[in-house]
Design brief:
By secondary structure, this protein is of the alpha+beta class. 27% of the residues lie in helices and 28% in strands.
Length: 192
């Protein structure tokens, strides 16, 4: 005995009209889904592309109110070497050269033109709060206190990654006899 089976055209709960509707719109639904996914992927790439703190002054120093403070090149001195002191001051070109040779770091920019009779050279260390931190440097001469002070205000860039450590050469006017030079780090908790 043979049984011939012919599917019915209107089989199923809603019939062929529903199936045709689904398949007809399936292509447009897939294309829309791919467009949405591409847009989300593009947004993720854009928002995660800038999460590293850069080492150039244009990015790090948004507002610098210094006139006699010269911010020179960054150096690769281990941060822990200077961290507790925050500042190492040099009295002569020979001291700078000896430090550079011992620590195997670059000499300061304009080392050949540096005159210890007119300027004082130092190395300062500081670190960012997060990966987009920015820094504002100020230099003050306090005659009452007989001191020169270099201030760095560190402000959050509202990034969740940690900040980098920096060590760099700086030059200030020669300290008068009996004056001291200090480096003070201030944290600005203000959120943009």
């Amino acid at each position: 005995m043979t049984i011939n089976f012919k599917p019915r055209r209107n089989s199923g709960f809603l019939g062929n009209k529903y199936a045709n509707f689904l398949f007809k719109n399936l292509r447009s639904n897939i294309i829309n889904l791919m467009r949405s996914f591409s847009l989300i992927l593009l947004l993720l790439l854009i928002t995660t592309s800038g999460y590293s703190q850069k080492m150039n002054d244009d990015y790090l120093i948004k507002d610098t109110t210094v006139s006699e403070l010269k911010l020179l090149n960054f150096v690769e001195v281990p941060y822990y070497f200077i961290m507790d002191k925050a500042l190492v001051q040099f009295q002569s070109n020979a001291d700078i050269k000896r430090f550079s040779d011992t620590m195997k770091v670059e000499l300061p920019q304009m080392f050949n033109e540096f005159d210890p009779e007119k300027n004082t050279m130092a190395i300062i260390s500081y670190s960012g709060i997060d990966c987009h931190s920015w820094f504002k440097f100020e230099f003050l001469k306090l005659d009452d206190d007989r001191s020169y002070k270099i201030y760095v205000t560190i402000r959050s860039g509202e990034c969740r990654a940690g900040g980098n450590n920096y060590t760099r050469w700086v030059s200030v006017p020669k300290l008068p006899v009996g004056y001291s030079l200090s480096f003070i780090k201030l944290i600005d908790e203000h959120r943009n």
